[in-house]
Amino acid sequence: MKKFWKISAWTVAVLVALALVLLVAGSIVLNKVSPALTENPAVGKWYSIAPEGALSADGTPWRGLFRKGKENKVIFLFFGGGVSLDAYTAARGYSVDSKHGYYSDNVSRLDFVGRMGFKAGIGSSREDNPFRDWTIVAFPYSTGDFHCGAGEYRYTGLDGKEHILHHRGYSNYEKTLEMVLPILGTPEAVLITGFSGGAFGTALLSSDLASRFPENTNITSYVDAGLLVKDDWHDVAVNQWHAPDSIASFIESDNLTLDALKALHRKHPGVKILFDCSVRDEAFSNYQAYIDRGDNMTTTKADGDRFNVYLKQMVKDFREAIPEGGLFLWDDIVSNEKEELTLHTIEMTHHFFDDRAGNGSIAEWVSSAVKGDVYSKGLDLLDHE
After folding, report:
1. What CA–CA distances, in Å, run from 209 to 192, 229, 278, 303, 369?
2. Cα maximum dimension of the chain
3. Residue 351 DSSP code
4. What is the spatial distance between Cα 238 and Cα 233, in angstroms, rounded to a whole number?
5. d(CA 6, CA 147)
6. Which among 116, 139, 112 is positioned nearest to 49, based on CA atoms?
7. CATH number, domain 5-383
8. What does the pLDDT read at residue 384?
9. Helix, strand, or coil (residue 196)
10. What is the distance of C-alpha 53 from the center of its chain?
11. Is the distance from CB of 107 to CB of 60 less than 8 angstroms?
12. Which of 110, 226, 266, 370 has the lowest tally of Cβ within 10 angstroms?
């Protein structure tokens, strides 16, 4: 594994979830930063989308973000921020356990971090960003359900009392679309994407979004790092998240991302499908350690090895099921040198625009797919592990 970039542990923590508590911005709330979305939004201005009844996991109001672009093209962007899988993780949201929390449970933590990502990554105004003039509909993630929940989950908190986790990712998504679709009209191109927890949301909701634009023949689904292997994903989706049957019905295996992308390909064969990931993703190695052995206090080289095995199988199955799809693997940003672990997610960072070890930038790869040229890069890295 080539070690071209090294980044600090603090930076990794921010990039892992894009939802950790930033002391200087912990009190910022979306509706205090951005004006409410109007029927005629101004180009280049950020607006808050505040659907009535939209909730975060802790029961506080949820908010989305909207920015109108100069071009008649739109990005649907799903934020990441962990996941709740059971009663143990439900009791440990970031606001309860800021050091070892499993998911963002309050959207007020996401605005500042998201804006920093928009300045650096796919939503930035830099000249080499092919998406700088696109409209963005952003879905902050504070429901612990990969954006597909539509119910409540009762659990016992660390205080010994009964609490309710509002898994409303899908409900919030639907309420948001009711507000923004009339404004969007018929875009010339649609890019559905998300990072980390939002990468799973991208896979799970791309088919639904594609159905909302039946006249659009240029739709791309780009999953930026979304791979966790778990035998009972279907049970989690149904019994904890209360995902609608339109989503839960296609979750059949231990890889819900691949299940979702295969279902998307079957229903919408014209949608271009992309998946990227670093080969020894530190954050997913950490979450996978909890799934596999119930312990993720530290992340080791062995955890990276295990994740790499799962990734190899994912790539093999993806290429067999979706031969028209595109893959981009990379290993040249090392987040933990001692354990040989690599950076988690890329589209909200400036690395999105950098050449990846001679394979070009991921921004170029996604832009090429939008234009109809879908290809894969970095697959040889798996042979080197």
Report:
1. 8, 25, 27, 35, 18
2. 55
3. G
4. 9
5. 31
6. 139
7. 3.40.50
8. 59
9. coil
10. 23
11. yes
12. 266
The span from the CA of 32 to the CA of 147, in Å, is: 24
- Residue from 78, 110, 244, 90 nearest 166 by CA: 90
Amino acid identity of 312? K
Listing DSSP states for 20-76 in one string gives SPPTTTTT--HHHHSPBP-SSPPBT-EEEE--TT-B-TTSSBP-EEEEB-SSSEEEE
Length of the chain: 385
The span from the CA of 297 to the CA of 290, in Å, is: 9
Gap between the Cα atoms of 351 and 81, Å rounded:
20
Burial group, residue 249, by CB count within 10 angstroms (0-12, 13-18, 19+): middle
Closest of 24, 182, 2, 149 to residue 83, by C-alpha: 149
Q: How far apart are CA 43 and CA 35, in angstroms?
A: 14
The CA distance from 348 to 76, in Å, is: 14
* Strands 151-156 and 272-278, sheet pairing: unpaired
Q: How far apart are CA 207 and CA 324, in angstroms?
A: 17
- Please state, in angstroms and rounded to a whole number, the distance separating the CA atoms of residues 352 and 364: 9
Q: How confident is the model at residue 107 (pLDDT cuts 50, 70, 90)?
A: confident
Q: What is the DSSP letter of 297?
A: S
Terminal alpha carbon distance of the chain: 8
Local structure of residue 129 (DSSP, 8 states): -
At 218-277, the pLDDT tens digits run: 999 999 999 999 999 999 999 999 999 999 999 999 999 999 999 999 999 999 999 999
User: Looking at the whole model, is its pTM more than 0.85?
Assistant: yes
Are the C-beta atoms of residues 378 and 333 closer than 8 Å to each other?
Answer: no
State how far Cα 182 lies from the chain centre.
Answer: 25
Tokens of 116: 């920093």
